[in-house]
Amino acid sequence: MRGEFALLKQYLQGVIVGQEALLDKLMVALLTGGHVLLEGPPGLAKTTAVKALADGVHASFQRIQFTPDLMPGDVMGSEVLDPTTGRLSFVQGPIFNEIVLADEINRAPPKVQSALLEAMAEKQVTAGGQTRSLPALFLVLATQNPLEQSGTYPLPEAQLDRFMLHLLLDYPDESEELEILRRDRSHHFGEDREKVKGSLAPETVLAARRQIAEMHVAEPVERYMVALVTATRKLEKYDPEMAKVLEIGASPRASIALLHATSAWAWLQNRDFVTPEDVKAMLPDILRHRLAVSFVGRSQQWSADRVIQRLLDLVPVPVEA
């Protein structure tokens, strides 16, 4: 089974130049069913990466372009009057797909962003007094441009917490950008992409998720995860000078997300157990959107990522795991 996911990774590498960390974390999301928020300036292949992931899995896919005039019904669906019967019937919206790309999610108003909350948290949609289940593979991959860009709205904290991972993308280096130019000019990878497209069945993904859920995690590693997450709520325990750096720490949902993500990460490394190094690899993407830096913290040049790195330095790593 791991071999099939290795082929999927090769396919993604054939589509996206560089961005190895992004591709690895997208694989983690697929293997856990955890939603992902991708953030970066326009033009860094966020949409392309998500579309490539969907192409590599034989699953239903829908892209939703978020705009300021989007309405909740445009995403979830709505009841429509049938003129022949005079009855209302529910027409499903694009959210009823296995992989959903919410493109530029922070360009839609808060009421639309909030409408996604139930779908992301419960994998269901309630409309017209009836609750409808979403597909078992259901996964939301959202992209957003930095909030400093004009015409954007900050995501509600409750919705941010529903994203397992918050991935930050940066510009490619010169050699990678040169390769992007060459690929664009030659279209050399078009034929290879068609060969691999749809090779991974949703049933295989769900079977891998069951394997990952049974991954062995030693108690010292579990305690290390909990210590890192709870440290965000009591920074003064580890460094008195950081007492007022954060307004909000991470909730227990962060610990659960960390457990699932590290299990999938270890599985992708061909191991059946989780190590402290797996925890260190996944922690920044798990926590950065769950921490709110205070005014005091910002005045002292603290950021969520800097706090996370400081905690990794301060919280003792288990010797035996």
TrEMBL record:
<dbReference type="InterPro" id="IPR011703">
    <property type="entry name" value="ATPase_AAA-3"/>
</dbReference>
<dbReference type="InterPro" id="IPR027417">
    <property type="entry name" value="P-loop_NTPase"/>
</dbReference>
<protein>
    <submittedName>
        <fullName>MoxR family ATPase</fullName>
    </submittedName>
</protein>
<dbReference type="Pfam" id="PF07726">
    <property type="entry name" value="AAA_3"/>
</dbReference>
<dbReference type="Pfam" id="PF17863">
    <property type="entry name" value="AAA_lid_2"/>
</dbReference>
<dbReference type="InterPro" id="IPR041628">
    <property type="entry name" value="ChlI/MoxR_AAA_lid"/>
</dbReference>
<dbReference type="InterPro" id="IPR003593">
    <property type="entry name" value="AAA+_ATPase"/>
</dbReference>
<feature type="domain" description="AAA+ ATPase">
    <location>
        <begin position="32"/>
        <end position="173"/>
    </location>
</feature>
<dbReference type="InterPro" id="IPR050764">
    <property type="entry name" value="CbbQ/NirQ/NorQ/GpvN"/>
</dbReference>
